[in-house]
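Lab notebook, bench 4. The sequencing result for the construct came back, and we need a structural model before the next group meeting so we can plan mutations. Quick request posted to the team channel:

Model the 3D structure of this chain.
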Amino acid sequence: MGLTWTIVTLVIALGLAWRFLGSYMAAVFEGRVHFLGWAERPVYRLLGTSPDQEQTWKRYAGALIVFSALSIALTYVIIRIQGSLPLNPQHLGAVPPALSFNTAASFVTNTNWQNYGGETTMSYFSQMGALTVQQFVTPAVGIAVAIAVVRGFSRRNSPTIGNFWVDITRCLLYVLLPIAFVAGIIFVGQGAVQTLAGPVHIRNALNGVTQTIPRGPIGFMEAIKQLGTNGGGFLNANSATPFENPTGLTNWLSIFLVLCIPFSLTYTFGKMVGSVRHGAALLAAMVIIFGIWVGGTTIAEHQQNPAVAAAGVHANVGNTVGKEVRFGDTSTALFGAASTSTSTGSADASYDSFTPMGGFFLITGMMLGEVTPGGVGSGLYTILIYAIIAVFIGGLMIGRTPEYLGKKIQAKEVKLAGLGALVMPIAVLVLTAIAVSIHAGRAGPLNAGPHGFTEILYALTSQGNNNGSAFAGLTGNTAFYNVVGGIDMLIGRFGIMVPAIALGGVLAAKNVVPESLGTFRTDNGMFVGLVIGVIVIIGGLTFFPAVSLGPIVEQLSHGKFF
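Done. Here's the predicted structure in token form:
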């Protein structure tokens, strides 16, 4: 598939998904879809709940925390004792405690950061019974939180924002499982490996060397890996190996799956609040920033790798170091930008081998809060946090109490939004400062100088944003990075989720204020520009000094930006 057709078909497919998948998800979470009611009802009976038993924001957040804590504990136990569990054809032993904690925190926070090689560390049972299960559950949790926040805008004088258990059940049954099943069939049909037969041992008759080729239930894990913006692959090489990503079609499908739900949720938001124009405004802010970042990454990767040029090797193609020749530099740049502008982190190339400015766009896509379009659910509730801040600033400019969708934005809402926007930068920057200040942290990077600093900053930015991609040069499987990374991921996930849920609860309890001639519009181009400005300014003010010490100074050492 040529590059032009890749982009054209991707835009058309995402446009259709925005309209129809977005409308479908609104119907699902408003309780208008019932064709799997026979599967829903036993789940509710088991949990002792029903769609009629709604929760306050505190009970909703409490259910989320309890469920996530139990998920971490179960995942930790499974991978710790995997040596005594079935479906372990390679007879892999228990995973060490620090790595088990990091992995459990990673998959339960939708980060899927992997300080291990999947095919040499995790048994089939661990991959399917623990990790893949979380790849379904955690995006459902993210979408549930986003829907709870949306209800805060759509309801009036309501003490409740929905039922957490009902929301994740409906998300799993009606959204994630059906789409992932169809996508899994396509992946397997294109050649992705799907078997429980164990690895293959091949002996080279010429030199007598025996090679072990890992196999496993890869294809269907690949589908939810992308759809749920998870990113954690069965194999260490992730989507750069044909066992996971066999063809150009699966590469295109991976990009589509990564982007479809985050973009479509803006239409869901518009339908649920009764104004698709407001959803389109959020979509426009996402698309504009995403388009700029894709363009910047592509231009950077069209340049020759400066390290290769310094070695006296000159080529008339772009930076092909660390890239799959099947996909090329431009398609890889699009994949990388999609992966790091969402909470996915999957990779069809080595991000450590991108040019300094190519790496700049990857890392800053995460530093903006991953709202362009962000992860499933997390992108929507995070951009709504930025929209609240933008409305507050707009209200200051026109000299009246700010309103968004008829809800007055007052001190409590601004404080919650401010907390949600600053949790991630504080966690990332503080933990990065600790890492570069002690020997255990400085021992991790493979490279010295600004590139080594970027490897540390990228790792903690990726984990703090629940992304999961890496610069590969960092040795992360140490006690220090496993523990610090696990803490980073937990703060980055729940430190934003809880204020977002509280924001939804506060807004749901408010009445709607009628519009007047002085109302600041929040569905036009001016508001889109204001939201973009807030996202970029907050990201720039918090991270520009750190980025200046990494990819920017590394690029300047080569004399030019592009």
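The first strand starts at residue 200 and ends at 203.
Will bring this to the meeting.
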